[in-house]
Amino acid sequence: MLQHTLGRLSRALLPAPVLAVVLAASLAAPVPARADVDDWPMLHAAVFQNRDIIEGDGVVIIDAPAQADDGALVPITVRVPPEVKGPLKSLTIVLDKNPVPVVAQLHFGPAAGEGGERRFSTRIRVDSFSHIRAVVETEDGKLHMTKGFIAAAGGCAAMNAKDPTAEAEGMGKMIVKTFPPALDSTPIWEGQVMLKHPNFSGYQINPNTGEMIEARFLEKMTVKRDGELVFTLDGTPSISANPYFRFTFGRGENNDLDVTMKDTDGTVFQAESKPSGS
Amino acid sequence: MTENTRNPRFAPLGPPLTRADVLKGMGALACLPLAQSWLVRPSAAATAPDAPEMAVEEIAPGVYVHHGRYELQSPENLGDMANTAFIVGDDAVAVIDTSGTAIAGKAFRERIREITDKPIRYVINTHMHPDHVLGNVAFKDDDPEFVAHKNMKAGLEVRAETYLASSERMMGKAAMEGTEIVLPTREISAKEVLDLGNRKLVLEPQPTAHTNNDLIITDEKTGTLFLGDLLFSKHIPTLDGSVLGWLPLIEKLHGRKAARVVPGHGPVSMDMPESLNDEQRYWTVVTDDIREIIADNGTLEEAVKSAGYSEKDKWKLFDVYHRRNVTAAFAELEWE
Question: Number of folded domains in chain B?
């Protein structure tokens, strides 16, 4: 089964479909992690087709807490320092020991910006002690990776809302914000997107029926600035409930952000931020 | 191809799990890898640990309370980290919370039996947390009604596996001997009265605050109010529900009269409303600090580093729980 799965994965290309394939494989044959096994070789093959990856060269940095305060809500920030020139092609975040190890994959567009520090922050579910990796593909097609280690406990149970009734009622509320830089001349702005959504992994139980709650999570997010693509994001249930993203984008004419999110049920959520008031 | 010998941690997507599977921990949703393969085992785990004393104090005629320790679960304390109580009526006994393991619950039951042999008709849980419910099993043979807020059954079921796994991780296998989840058999959805024989207990389910299943109990005879974890004293409050629900609830409780109040964690008998002041201050400071950070477009990471630290020296176990409290409160407040 695993052989077949990896065979399928190795034929997948890096852009968007790979995430769906990895995800499908994970959900179809969910084999959880043993702490003493190094999962990276398998993930390197499945997610990156064993391509060369340069590790720790400073092209990408990850801020993640060594000890998670709440395994279901672990904030991480990926940073690409200003010295790194040229547009980025993609960013992939991997949590080795998670049931769904690929956390998210971003593909950048012309409005992603450069000329300053580039950042992407989100909150993730960490199932147990694991390496976290951020892999960036630069313009020249090279892959660069940084890794950290997160100690977490109980990431699964806390996947469930503290007040399921309240959660269900608020679902679908979406907030988009933009933050201009201190200096007008800075070519990088920052945006933030939040969605009230349970992001069910498919591994939680409905206490009333004893059956598994069907997976329902953010599958795709598209962010545009003044109609130009900043990035698309392929999501997985390793992103925390009420998905939160903060990211840099390239300064434009109006800096109006338009964000569309789609979950696995096909439900679409959309919101915008118009700092220009246009 | 790399041979990847991962252990099954999830059931393959096949026939749905039943509640029985979940409660027996049949590995289906064992979100945590089980303890045996790699976690550091507490050295005391080899032989059966000594049961905690679970001493009780009669704080009012017929009302007995055990003072839980201000500690995290450990192999030595067997989960004795919350206050438990019992009330003796003419005909029957009601237990309020049962501590954090079967062994602790059993020891507590022995204290009850040293005082009365009246039938234990009710085991009431103030809320779902493991240090308040894992001793329920010690009372099964009394065939009581297990009474709780109507939301507790679902809340506990969904967390059962994780509570058992993390309790074992903290206390070791020997300490967890005999511990299993016992779900409520009687759900309280509105104010309800239980009679122990010339002794009425008034049960009132609360809106989401500490958890979404907080239940308070009043012993009419002595005017003793049991607030469960709606009241913390000395031990840092913890948030697993809604801080925006808890603060107004504290305001409301300020207006209540009671001869004495029993917190879920703290001295066994306290005064109303003064006992509420410390936790009210804590949550107010945390909320105010977080709101300021949010108004400044600050992040969760920033809040965890800086919100509420003026409270640091005022609470036991601050270093264990405060950051988690800030995380939970931030995730709630950012939607305001």
Answer: 1
